[in-house]
Amino acid sequence: MSHATDLHDADLPGLASIAAQQLDARGRRIIDELASMLPAEAIITDPGAMGAYQQDRAVDPNAGMPVAVVLPLTTEHVQVAVQWAAERKVPVVPRGAGTGLSGGATAITGGIVLSTERMRSITVDPVTRTAVVQPGLLNVEVKAAAAAEGLWYPPDPASYEICTIGGNAATNAGGLCCVKYGVTSDYILGMEVVMADGRVVRIGGPRLKDVAGLSMLKLFVGSEGTLGIITELTLRLLPPAPPERTVVGWFSSSREAAAAILDIASSIRPSMLEYMDATSINAVEDVLEMGLHRHASALVVARSDDQSPSGAEIATMLNAFHRHGAFDAFEVADRQEGERFANARRIAIPAVERMGTLLLEDVGVSIPRLAELTLGVEKIAKSRDVVIAFIAHAGDGNTHPLIVFNPDDDDMKERAYLAYGEVMDLAIQLGGTITGEHGVGRLKQPWLVDQIGEDLLEISHNVKKALDPAGILNPGTIFAASGDATNAGKGRP
């Protein structure tokens, strides 16, 4: 039996009921009160306009309708809204650009959505190689501001052009280059957070080494808005990225491709090592028409920014491709051509999305078990008679099975949901994780206890209760809303 049933902070129905009762009892007055405390441009109460804020890209079918959407411009605006919500026990769902893929920004009926999209300032200090950033700035904009000062912000989610830096911090996002350069948490030195009671705290700062007190940064990064709302980040920047060389390997089987990936990852540290299966290759070729091999079972795109004259890493990768049966393997002609292949991998999700509605996963395993996961997902797709496109940040074992279905076909939808759960079960059986970078959100929380165990889940709940005793911050995300977390909602995201 899970401990989730004992924890009032996870009582999502109770919170929604309280908020709804308050709204019924006091009508518009309660919302007018909040509106009077904020600038007119910082709040939306029109139901038509609020519809766009009900869910993220995961399209959670259980999304509710908020009573208001708050669009703060400053930390003080966030503080006002959270204090108001805390006094009335109104749920608060933090949100960035809404590009999340696990339902972590799903609106709650009777609650408010707090979107940080308008908090967009940035200051870059080239001397300390740091940037102080508000959470609404897009990842690509952070990169551009750093580049203007001759610096580089490495984390590069495939959605870097549309996702916010605050959302990246909330889910500890990764990306294509993180196999060598690390994920978002590796570049966060400090943050400002509005806590559940409205207090504002600063954690860390521009110092590269700082061990005073408990390590709170890692606690808040990846917490998906359940412990506090991040209103400012201090980021570590690097010197400009070295020039890269790109190699491509085409394979007739996923097993051969996985073997080549393991060979490369155990020999060198490439700056990119990505995988695409036949379904995603053909979906991308439909969009780009760049001459991808439609008959291939797998494509591996790898990069090296090794600056040694010998170029030994390129030879290592090409040798691995040939040694494991690639029917075509080569170094691309120039950086422009290399970027075309990297872009092919980046657009895989929207390309596959043209085939139908997606259930997106980001399960991960250790690299030696990548072949087992790949082949296992192929078996699940066959047994459930659904299409599952498979792409991966293969160099660190973080994979993205994309389950395609028609939402108007009830039988297909049921099979897709069952396949979704079976993929996560498989990852756990292989000693892996239900999420490498997208977060647990709402869709994956029934499987969390299977991965981390009841004791650690109870400890996690205790941390949540300590920081958010009323349970108003993103209730239902990460932690089960109610019932037994070992069974609640399994097979039905």
From TrEMBL:
<dbReference type="InterPro" id="IPR036318">
    <property type="entry name" value="FAD-bd_PCMH-like_sf"/>
</dbReference>
<dbReference type="InterPro" id="IPR016166">
    <property type="entry name" value="FAD-bd_PCMH"/>
</dbReference>
<feature type="domain" description="FAD-binding PCMH-type">
    <location>
        <begin position="62"/>
        <end position="240"/>
    </location>
</feature>
<protein>
    <submittedName>
        <fullName>Glycolate oxidase</fullName>
        <ecNumber>1.1.3.15</ecNumber>
    </submittedName>
</protein>
<dbReference type="InterPro" id="IPR016171">
    <property type="entry name" value="Vanillyl_alc_oxidase_C-sub2"/>
</dbReference>
<dbReference type="InterPro" id="IPR006094">
    <property type="entry name" value="Oxid_FAD_bind_N"/>
</dbReference>
<dbReference type="InterPro" id="IPR016164">
    <property type="entry name" value="FAD-linked_Oxase-like_C"/>
</dbReference>
<dbReference type="InterPro" id="IPR016169">
    <property type="entry name" value="FAD-bd_PCMH_sub2"/>
</dbReference>
<dbReference type="InterPro" id="IPR051914">
    <property type="entry name" value="FAD-linked_OxidoTrans_Type4"/>
</dbReference>
<keyword id="KW-0274">FAD</keyword>
<keyword id="KW-0560">Oxidoreductase</keyword>
<keyword id="KW-0285">Flavoprotein</keyword>
<dbReference type="Pfam" id="PF02913">
    <property type="entry name" value="FAD-oxidase_C"/>
</dbReference>
<dbReference type="Pfam" id="PF01565">
    <property type="entry name" value="FAD_binding_4"/>
</dbReference>
<dbReference type="InterPro" id="IPR004113">
    <property type="entry name" value="FAD-bd_oxidored_4_C"/>
</dbReference>
<dbReference type="GO" id="GO:0003973">
    <property type="term" value="F:(S)-2-hydroxy-acid oxidase activity"/>
</dbReference>
